[in-house]
Write a structure and sequence with these properties.
The chain contains three helices and seven strands, in the order αβαβαβββββ. With about 140 residues, it is α/β, with parallel strands linked by helices. It has one domain: Rossmann fold.
């Protein structure tokens, strides 16, 4: 199963609105695709935004867009299970079931899953936007 390379802009805007992101937030995007979640968070909200993408072509696309936008977002091309999530208070996850991590820091961060909710995650809120589902788990904001 291959995922689409991005989250629709309307879904991103709704997620940002629900999260009430501020410049003090530290956002991580796991499965960042073309980078739009981080690029918009950095540009529009001025929060620290870091994206992780294991597909090289999508990582390159995000990096090229960042060079053009100069939003301040950072991207890494690496294995999702090697990410230290302890520095982030908001984690956005866009992964297919086979890519999901075995654990997330639900006690210390708000973790938002796009469409796919792992079995070990319990949402405190679920929102439908244009046929897509956002599952908000972990620490309430």
């Amino acid at each position: 199963m291959r995922r689409q390379p991005h989250t629709p802009l309307k879904v991103i805007r709704e997620m940002f609105k629900i999260l009430k992101l501020t410049p003090n937030d530290r956002l991580c995007d796991i499965g960042s695709g073309d980078g739009r979640v981080c690029l918009l968070a950095s540009r529009d909200i001025s929060c620290l935004s870091v994206g992780y993408e294991h597909e090289k072509e999508l990582f390159d696309l995000a990096m090229n867009t960042e060079k053009w936008m100069k939003s301040g977002a950072t991207f890494y091309n690496l294995d999702f299970n090697k990410i230290d999530l302890s520095q982030f208070n908001v984690i956005y996850v866009y992964l297919i079931p086979e890519e999901q991590r075995s654990s997330y820091p639900f006690e210390t961060a708000t973790v938002v899953f796009y469409d796919v909710l792992p079995k070990h995650a319990v949402p405190y809120e679920t929102v439908e936007v244009d046929g897509h589902t956002l599952h908000f788990c972990g620490r309430r904001r």
